[in-house]
């Protein structure tokens, strides 16, 4: 994709869709106003809130960089669509109304794009925090965000790249945003625009990465994506949503070139969807569970998974269903044990990076 040359002080458009987050939206807005990079516009779309969200937002409208648009409720994607319609920036970023940016987020994004002018998208790390913004660990925890020209890899894995970031970690050039917007607004897309963006971005842009956390994702129990417990029913819902997202991705590809649709592998070519399919089949005692299990072990072998991980899933069929369900809930939901482990890992990384900087500062 052709990308225009950035001027000396590019305008950054921060898009925010708000629905009934009056208790959090002020902190989100302040995190943008406190940026060290000043040439931005914060475009807020209130998606039909029934609480005090609008009155909270209006406190900040004296700053000309903050603009508010209002409409009837239609889902987060409709809010982002309206915000983007009114955006003028050379760079487009996203912020959920319950999350916050670090003060150098926009400066780091602009710097990264300047240093990598071929990149149409920059992904940045984030950290999880509780309702009171107390850190719970980084996202991703132990992996790295994907980078490079990854269209072929995405097509071969059914459209999903591993370890993609959440909404406040997505930043794109205007030309890329224009190719992606408007987002579809029917169910389930209106509720999960980030899940569609995960699939579309690698097809339109070279991706650069800033691994350090530049945003905080607040977990407070009412997040639309937060899952408190994995069950056969919740897995079925997830698989159905992913099927819809895969179909939308294929539709987009076909509109570009009819032959591109045939290059998109089926949904369960993605290791994450294959794993969900196996877990669902195991919990429901489906006859397909053996076939899914064989494919899961083969995929772990191909990706070079560690010995402990391979041993875990090799043993999975022999566990009683109630133990298997407890195990996957321990592994794949937010819980106290994982929060403690995440904080420990983040602390080790922070101390290690600090020691590295001190060593190099003396050279």
CATH architecture of the largest domain: Alpha-Beta Complex
Q: How many independent structural domains? A: 2
- How is the main sheet built? 9 strands, mixed
Q: Strand pairing plus helix content: what structural class?
A: alpha/beta
Mean pLDDT score, rounded? Answer: 89
Class of the largest domain, according to the CATH hierarchy? Answer: Alpha Beta
Secondary-structure element pattern, one letter each:
EHEHEHEEHEEHEHHEHHHHHHH
Alpha carbon gap, first and last residue: 42 Å
Radius of gyration: 21 Å
Number of helices: 14
Please tell me what the overall shape is: globular
How big a fraction of the residues is strand? Answer: 15-25%
Helix content: 40-55%
CATH topology of the largest domain: Spore Coat Polysaccharide Biosynthesis Protein SpsA, Chain A
CATH superfamily of the largest domain: Spore Coat Polysaccharide Biosynthesis Protein SpsA, Chain A
Secondary structure tally: strands: 9
Tell me which oligomeric state these chains represent. single chain
State the low-pLDDT regions, or none: none
